[in-house]
Structures are given as C-alpha cells and as structure tokens.
Amino acid sequence: MTLFLLSPARQQPDLWHPAADVYRTSWGWILKFDLAGVCLEDIHVHVARNAVTVSGVRRDRLMEGGANHYAMEIVYNRFERTIELPGTLEHSRLRLDYRDGILFIRISLEETDHD
Amino acid sequence: MTEQLSVQVLPALPLKNTLLFPNLLLPLSVGRPSSLAAVQAALATEEKEIILIAQKDSSVENPAQTDLYTVGTKAVIRKMSRPNDSIIEVLVMGVERVVVLKLETGQAGYLEARVTPSPLPHDTGAEVEALQGAVIELATRAIELAQPQAPPELSRMLTGNEDPLHLTYVLASILSLDLAKEQALLEAQSRVEALRLMHAYLSHEVQVLELKSKIANSARSEMSKEQRDYMLRQQMRAIQQELGDKNSDQAELDMLREQIEKADLPDEVRKEVMRELGRLEKIPAASPEHNVLRSYLELVLELPWKTATEDKLDIGNARRILDEDHYALKEVKERILEHLGVLKMNPSAKAPILCLVGPPGVGKTSLGQSIARALGRSFERLSLGGLHDEAELRGHRRTYIGAMPGRVIQAIRRAKANNPVLMLDEVDKLGRDYRGDPAAALLEILDPEQNKNFRDNYLDLPFDLSRALFITTANTLDTIPRPLLDRMEILRLQGYSEEEKIEIARRYLIPRQLKESGLTAEQVTLLEETLQKLISSYTREAGLRRLERAIGRLTRKFALRFAEGNTAAVTIAPGDLAEMLGPEPFTQEKMRRKLPVGVATGLAWTETGGDVLYIEGTLLPDGKGLTLTGQLGEVMQESVKTAQSFAWSHAAELGIDPKLFKNSGVHIHVPAGAIPKDGPSAGITMAVALTSLYTGLPARSDTAMTGEITLTGLVLPIGGIKEKVLAARRAGIRRIVLPQANQKDLRELPDKVREEMEFIFAERIEEVLENTIPALSSRLKLTAA
Lengths: 115, 785
Fold this sequence. Notes:
The complex is a heterodimer of chains A (115) and B (785).
Chain A: E1 20-24, E2 28-34, E3 43-47, E4 51-58, E5 71-72, E6 77-84, E7 93-99, E8 102-108
Antiparallel strand pairs in A: 1-2, 2-8, 3-4, 4-6, 7-8
Chain B: E1 8-15, E2 25-30, H1 33-44, E3 49-54, E4 71-84, E5 87-105, E6 111-117, H2 126-146, H3 152-160, H4 164-175, H5 179-186, H6 191-243, H7 248-262, H8 267-282, H9 288-302, H10 315-325, H11 330-345, E7 354-357, H12 364-375, E8 379-383, H13 390-394, H14 407-415, E9 421-425, H15 438-446, E10 454-455, E11 462-463, E12 469-474, H16 482-486, E13 489-492, H17 498-517, E14 524-526, H18 528-538, H19 545-563, E15 570-572, H20 576-581, E16 599-606, E17 609-621, E18 626-629, H21 634-649, H22 651-654, H23 659-663, E19 664-669, H24 683-695, E20 703-705, E21 708-709, E22 715-716, H25 721-731, E23 735-739, H26 751-756, E24 758-762, H27 765-772, H28 774-784
Parallel strand pairs in B: 1-3, 7-12, 7-13, 8-9, 9-12, 14-15, 18-19, 20-23, 23-24
Antiparallel strand pairs in B: 1-6, 2-5, 3-4, 4-5, 5-6, 10-11, 16-17, 17-19, 21-22
Helix pairs in contact in B: 2-4, 2-6, 4-6, 5-6, 7-8, 8-9, 10-11, 10-12, 17-18, 17-19, 21-24, 24-27, 27-28
C-alpha cells in the first residue's frame, strides 16, 4: 500500500491534504476523497500519466452573522492531493461523483463501461 | 487553481521577535486587542487568510506601518482555540511571501494590509546546487554539535529537501536566529542570496557551537575532579556523623581554642592568637593556608611566654659543678661565678653575654653546658658556623611558602623556658652575603636593651629574650664584627699545657673512653709517661680532641683483645704506642743544637696552640733588595723591613759594614714553607736573624724570642704568650726573651712551667740582641758606655 501513500515532501507543503481511500476493482480503481464542506465548483481533478490530482479550496461559507470562532479545527483554504497509481491511465475513463461530502473518482481501465 | 489576486487587502498581525516563513507552521499566542481583532476578522473570512509582519522593535505595543518590515508572509489559520477570553491561540501555515503596499488601522481597530505576492525567481544552476550542498553539510555538523542525540530523520529531512528555499526556511526556524537575520532571509531576492545568507549564518553557528563544546568539555573534566573531591568529603562527613564523631576539622579547631584559652599568654599575644584563630575557622581545611596558620598557632602556643626555670643560685654548688666538669680554666670559672653572684644579689640584672674564645677542643661548648647545669637552666645550642642568611636567625615572614621561625625562636621553643642558656657556637664563622648580614641580626638579639622585644619575622610578636643567658664561642676574635664584639664579655680559654692535658686525660678522657669501650680502669692502665708521649708525639693541638681520639683508639684495641678472650689486665707503656698507633705522626720541632749565622728562634701562635719557628736569613752577594719566602703575610713582611732598617740605621753600633746593605741582597725564609704566617710578633726575631747575618755572629740556640719591633728599636707586647711558652717548652727550649709589657701574662702559666723556664724581659731591641747573640754583648756594652 505504501505505493499509494505519497510522501508529504513531494506535495505542496503550504496546502492541506484531504484524506483519501483507494479501492481496487476488477475493472479499475475507485478513489474516495474526504472533502466535506467543499463546494463542487471549487474542486479540480487533474489526471496525469499515472496519477490523479485533486485540488481546490474549502471556503468557510456556513457562517451565521454575529458568530465568532471559539475554536477551529477544520482546515480551510487551498488543498491538494495527488494519488499515484501503477500503470498508465492514458486510456482509462473517469467518472466523478460528489455525495455527502465525499468525492468519488471511478477509473475504468478498460473501454467497457460497467456501471 | 484558485485565481491569484495580484493585490489583496487582508487583516495584518504584527509579530514580536519572530516571523513566519512560507510553507512552515507557526503556533502563535495572540493577546494584543488590535491583534485579537485582526485574527477574529481573518477567521470570519471564508479562506482564513492573514498577513504576518515582523515588528522592527518588539517594545512597540501598537505598531504603525513604519514600525513594521515591508516584507511579510501571507498565512492561513489552520487551527485556533481560546484558552481564555483574552488570548487566542492559532496555528498558522505560511503560504507565500508578500510585499506590504499599504498598512492602516481600519474601523474595526485592527491593521489592514494591502499586499501583493512577491515570489522569488526560480533560479537554479550550479551555484545553487553547490551552495545547497555546502549548507546541508554545515547544517548536519551544527546538528551533531548542538544535539548529538538528534534523530537521524532530521538530517535525512535536510538532504531530502529538494527546494533549496524551503531548506533554508526550515533551517532558519531550527536555528532560532535573531529576527534581523530571519527577516534578511525572508527578504532575499533569490535562492542564491538566501542560500548564501544561510551559509554565513550556519558557519558562524558551527563556530560558536564548536567553541561551546570545547569549553564544555574542558569545564567538564575540571569539574569532575572537584566534584569527586567534594563527593568524597561529603561521604567522609556522613561516615563521621554516622559514627558519632564530630567533624574532625571542627574538633581540631575546638581543641586549639581550648588550648589557647588555657595557655598563659600575654594579653597582646592572646589578642593576636584569637584573631588568627578566627581566620583559621573561616579557611577550609583543604586550603594550604589552613596548615600554615595552624602550625603558626601551634608554635605560639608552644612558646614559653611566661614559663621560666628557677635558677639555682647556690654559688658553692655551682663552683663544685664547674670544677667537676672542667679541670683548670681557673680564670674563666672565676668570671662565671662572679656573674652568678651578681644574679643572686640582683635577680633582675641583665645577664651578660659571654664570649668564650679559644682554640678548638679546649671545652668551650662543654663549659656552656656546665654553666647551664650550675644554674639549673635548660641548655640550647645553635651553631652559627657558615650561617649567611639573616632569615635563619630572624625567621621568614609567614607570607612565604615554607616559612619557619628563626633559629633563636626555635631554640627557645625546644628549651621550653624563656630563660635558657643559649649557646651561639662559632660566632666568628658567620657568613654574609646578599641575603643580609646575620651579624647585624645578632646585634639585636644580643643587645639587652633591644632583645626585650625581639620580633621574629615569622612569629611577628614581641618575645622577651632578655632573660636568656647568651654564651657565644669563637676560635678567634679577628673575624667578629666590632659592634658585636663590643656587646660581649670576652673570656679567653688558652690551650692546655702538657701537665694540664695529662691531668684532664686522667680525670675525664681515659675514664670516658674506657666506659665507651666497655672496659674498667683495672683492666687497662695508661702510664703517665705513655700519656706524655701520646700528647707530645701523637697529637699537636691546643685542645684535647686528638688526644681523646688517640686514647679511644687504644681502648678499642684492648676491647678487641678482651673480646677475643685475652682477659689479663694490661699496662700500656710508652714503647707500646708505636706498635698500636703506628709511627709518631709528629716529629717535634726540636731545639736545634747549634744555629748557623743568620738564624734565630722565634715563637708563633697558631689556632691549634703555639709553635717554634726558625727564621733563616742569608746574604746574596752582588744581589739586590729583599727576598721573602715562606708565605709571609703583609704585616710580617713589613716587620722584616722594619728590622732591616733598624739594623741598617744602627750599623755603626752593631759593628756592621754598611757596604753589606748596598752590595748584597738578603733572602729571608720562614719554614714550614707551606703554612701561611702573619703577625708582628716575629719582629725581634727578624732583627736578631738579620743582625746575626750582617755581623757574622751566630745567635744562641737555647733561646727563643717573640715581640714586635719598632723602627727606633722599641719592643712592643704581643699576644698568645701561654701557647708560645708551652711550645718552646715542648721543643726543649728553656730560655725565652719576651717584651717587658708581657710580664703580667706569665700568670696564666702553670706554676711548674714558670719555675722551669728562664724569662728575659726586654724593652729595647738592644736588650734582646745582648741576650741572644753572646758575641755581640761586649760590643753593645762598649757603645752603650
């Protein structure tokens, strides 16, 4: 599994890195990113030869007027996460799905569509 | 990617003493009201962004734009919490470097900064790589020095850092540089510049760390010895406590204090001693000073400040003791008894300082002991022979290492009484050099007016020496400095005559030597003739040391014989001596039966007694002047010239052909040639020898003479009469010519000698010539008439 978990040094150090799950299926990969509170339009997905990069901004929009922070643990502002995968992704197909604060990326290595 | 606004307005947070580098996390505690407002405002935004700018002067509470640097860092607040109402703690992540375009306090009371990003050019190349390598190397070294136990990940992290800029930022945060340096790094215009700065900082840091570790190492090795000592001492103390012992140092001090309190000390001394004791208590026992002080206090305590022995002033008893210990020495004993008499009548009388002068072995030292015994005082002897350092007498000041009290105080300490008989031996052999003149120190010690308050340099307290009886001894008075001589009462001990020696040998030396050899008087008998031979042929001295040694040799020989089982009593006859002691070492200067022309018999005084001296003269035809041989001293040479001038000026009366003086030289020789001779007492002998030479008439061989001559022919008195007479007698001469003024000295001679000898006293040289050159007497009488 170490193959998938990239060393933080390779990543932009000033950004936050959302947690991710990676699944292997008979047809390819499923990637899950914890992006709670991030608007879909603020998420960018980029596919390189053998890596998928998710980046974007989490903005604190759920604010009531007149409220002051008393504690803050959720990390806002720009984030980025790159997952490298074995083999080339050049002929694969991606399907994005954003549900309950989790971004799903399905990567089908074959041309055939399973779902 | 989010779109980058080239200019942004964001809340600004001034930082004291620190700043935030891009890509690094920094926890902050915010307390200033304006800063709290700024953080609140930043948190209220969607992206939680804030500008961090370092304050130039950390003491400014409400900084304006001029108080802050113009380059800061845009940061995102990652976390925040409020431990209480007045403080917000935040964790910020630096995002990028920004330049502050404008800074002003907004309506909400916090600073708002108008900033624009200021990214560094992405410069790469050989220089960057080289610098990066060097920086990593230095940083690794610095980490090793600063934290030898640092986890290896730290240095691995450094090498793994690909972006040199990030590397310098990480290092800067680890190194805790001062703010100015950090700001300079933040403001660096390129990676190369940033790396150079970091390289400079690091090399300085490494130097400091190396120095620090060097210092720490040396300090550690020094400390460990001291710590070890300390630990051991603590343990010792603990053990002593456990055993119920009091601290030994303290116990010692207590004992000293008790002794001081008990001791009978003069007030001044007690005061000083208590003060020194106070000092001692403050000095740790390990200090060398401690020992110095303690031995000083012990000395003060041991000194007999008020202790004195009681004098036994029974004159009859004293006389008996002196007679018991010493034969003869009538006059000296009488003088000593006189002093005892004075002491008895007036106990506070100042004790005289006696100076016993005489040849070696006549009993000066033992006489001192007898005086002490007669008085019932303790006796201490210190030899001054060869002493040439004043400090030996008066002590060294305590400030010197190894300082000791002077010999006088040491002797008093040994005597355990402040009125001992102190014998200063060999006072004529005092040396003197650049270290001072011990004779001068003696002046003070021997002056009854000054020695009441004698101050030893070591003791540094006045000690009363006036109750001590000082006796000095010397072989000759010539070398004693005048002022010293003036303070002393001179008692001369002459050499002993043969009769006296025989008596002393019989009474003291033979019994003593027999006892030492474990023999009794019954077993060995020494005939008087044997003793006589022993004295005249085996020894030549004024004193008795060689005689005693010779007797010792004899008794030991018999002890061996008895030890071997031959127990028959023996009597030693004169004839046995050659066999037992070898051939006679001294052939007597026997009276020469017939004297040739130009020879006269003189008498000399030597330190070992007297001697017969033949003065020989011869004419050197066609020679010139006067030749003198036989190691004659200057005074003796002058008396030869005086004698010659006298003869010349009286040539007519003496019947001398004046041409002889002009046409021939004279050679005078005085045997034995190897022994230096000096003094004026051979004057008349020279005159007789020269007259005999010039007139061609021989002098009488049975007559010896001594006396000083003047140019006009007067005969002046000389010293050492007793020794000279005894020497003449030893040589078999029975007729002696002496200066008239010396007649009184004959009292010193034993009666028997006086009876045996014929003395002729002369006032003028004519009388001498008359009595020594028989053929001349008729001529002189003729001219006199």
